[in-house]
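Its record is retained below.
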Amino acid sequence: MGYVDGYILSVPKKNLPAYRRLALKAGKLWREHGALDYKECVGDDLNTKMGVPFPKSVKTKSGETVIFAYVVFKSRTQRWCRKFGQVDKW
C-alpha cells in the first residue's frame, strides 16, 4: 500500500490550458523526487448531495472549476524524505 498526498483547488475555467501545462511540469518533478504516480483531475459533475462538495470546500466563484490532484509515494517515510531533500534517510 502506498502513501497519498491530495490537494484540491479552484481554477478559472479560462486558465485550464495554462494550468494543464503547469501540471505536466509538476508531474515530472514529483516523479523525479520519487513519486510513483501523479494525477490532476478537473471537476465535471460536481453537484453531489452527499458529503461536502468540492466547490463548497474551496469556495469556487462563478467561472471556476475544481482541480483534485494527488501524488502517490511508496511510503510516508519516502514521501517525507523526498519532499524535504533527505533522500539518504529512506
Q: What stands out?
A: The mean pLDDT is 82. The helical segments are 16-32, 54-57, 76-83. The beta strands are 3-12, 37-42, 64-73.
